[in-house]
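Session log. Operator J.P. requested a structure for one protein chain; no other inputs attached. Running the standard single-chain path with token output.
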Amino acid sequence: MQIGMGRCLVAEALGSLILTGTVVGSGILAARLASGNDAVALIGNTAATGAILYVLICALGPISGAHFNPAVTLVMMLRRKLSVLSALLYVPIQVLGCVLGAWLAHAMFGLPIMQISTHVREGGPQILSESVATFTLLFAILAVSRWRPHAIPAAVALVITAGYWWTASTSFANPAITLARALTDTFSGVRPVDAPGFIAGQFAGALFAWIVCAVLLPKEAKD
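Structure written below.
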């Protein structure tokens, strides 16, 4: 069935909004309930994010590919699974959806809609962590799509769930979500001054995954 670009963009916007709303909203509630215990708060934040990712990819993957992430869109464009024009349309929609998701979370919890994060996440280890997290995410998507395409929703959800705990940055792995999280001064935020380093690391990790998978997973004849 042919799916029009309009439906794809609506799917990307909706998925990005719900994903970011879940990340920010669960972070707010987790921080409130954890009484200052960041480890407990992170557990709540992690579980909600992994769960919603699985659902969103299952629900919206057949429509738009369920990217919700400019790094994923870039790699799919480089692999010629997505046209340049489509990629250029996807990215601003993803960013808009993520920002609206952060604002929705603020509204649901009675917080000021417009915020700027003061949550410090600076330094080389943080940027390296984002490179590693995004590499792992893209590697999982590309490798699992080759061998077990029906397992992609679970693979992505599990990669992000694990990434919250094995990376120093808690695995943003998404430039659009990074921009949105710079606009929330809550548990999941990142200072705007730290965001460019995160985004650079994320795109670097995505490109490295593309290169590695081009070597490990050469195109099949049917491609």
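Operator note: The chain has a mean pLDDT of 96.
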